[in-house]
Design brief:
Elements: H1 3-33, H2 42-45, H3 50-53, H4 55-78, H5 80-99, H6 104-116, H7 120-131, H8 134-165, H9 169-189, H10 203-226, H11 231-253, H12 261-264, H13 267-295, H14 308-336, H15 338-359, H16 363-391, H17 397-425, E1 427-430, E2 433-436, H18 438-459, H19 478-486
Antiparallel strand pairs: 1-2
Amino acid sequence: MSKHHSTASTTRSSSAVIGVLAAAGITVSLMQTLVVPLLPDLPRLLHTNAADASWTITATLLAGAVATPVIGRLGDLYGKRRLLLISIALLVLGSLVCALTDSLAPMVAGRALQGMGMSVVPLGISLMRDVLPPERLGGALGLMSSSLGVGAALGLPASALIAQHADWHVLFWGAAGLAVVMALLVLFLVPATPATAAGDFDLVGALGVGAGLVCLLLPVSKGADWGWGSPTTLGLFAAAIVVLLAWGWWELRTPAPLIDLRATAQRQVLMTNLASVAVGFAMYAMSLIAPQLLALPEETGYGLGRSMMAAGLWMAPSGLVMMAVSPYAARLSVARGPKTSLLVGALVIAAGYALALPLMGQLWGVLVVSSVVSAGIGLAYAAVPTLIMDAVPVDETAAANGLNSLMRSIGTSASSAVVGVVLSHMTIPAGAVTVPSQAGFRMGFALGGAGAVVAALVTLCIPGRRVAATQPSTEPEPAQLVRWQTGRELS
């Protein structure tokens, strides 16, 4: 085999892996917005009330938050592609359960299974480190990292279109079919890799982090319904503190922890995770505010009077912008280091929210603002995996990326709670109902911008050592390069 032919074959193989893993990430992220067009009708469709119907959103959030670090560690122990396929299988199963039900309990169970599929993105990021040539890694990480935002942006108009013109179960049949296609593509085009970690699975740690996260995120999600000062809300927050402290004590003393807290306490990893929380907060603020602003009646004086599907179409370009900037983020990381890319991204997000204040009254203005914010998110999230993986051992990459994904989820959950409270309390009457006021929207945009500023300030605390995005600290082993040249799998 000639050197030129071998190089071309490796390039094609790398492109196939990047495309399949990014598509899998987009497929999983579609689940975030899948039920949004159904929310007003879910109480009627599931024969329940609005408060209970909201569990279809909460269950996905909680299951994804708990499963992501656990499945990440399992990927390090038993093989990342294997756990990637299991995660997609859970997504298929959850979609089928939802497609076959008309009642609340099975719907919530199915949505929880769909949430467990969110582990696909951190597993895909870690798998890329194992199988891609170094020169392809930077752009691939950026594309994979931005897939969550891309899928969420594209999913809203697609699901709204289906919900308006077909039976709502079609949404979940389509999700199941798409996930099956992704599973087959991963099975045949993504090479398997050996486990990178040794030791036993930390079951106590998994149960501890699961209980702690449920106690933390459940009141964050449901506090507005229960009351922020209610005994249930305060009791769960107190339980979260106790459980997570006990879990941390255990993790520091067990020989094979679920999450290596000493590694995550390194300045580079800790500051990157904190910045991810702030960026997640800023990202979700736009997702909450812009669709409502687009859908409010024009009679309010500031609403833009668009249908749910039209609002989704106006938001869709932001997802494409996020994908488009990922290669430029990789180049910036190579030239200046991933810290610079993260910092620039946070500042671009802040600039986008600053633009929102004068432009929020125009359709084109909302499009510009959402696109600028998405460009900043793409720059920021493209840098995060490199910063994380450069600082942790190769046998902890999936767990470390899973923890970072959890940090994003905490940021989005906090954003949902804080911005949701603002929009629900700063209201004006509109006929028989109340709607968020213009001042409420402005406050929401200001909070999103504040999250971006916090992300920028935290990023400045990341060590300034320059790291090339395409040169991870652990180079591919010779066996990996041989696999790419011969097409053979290691396992």
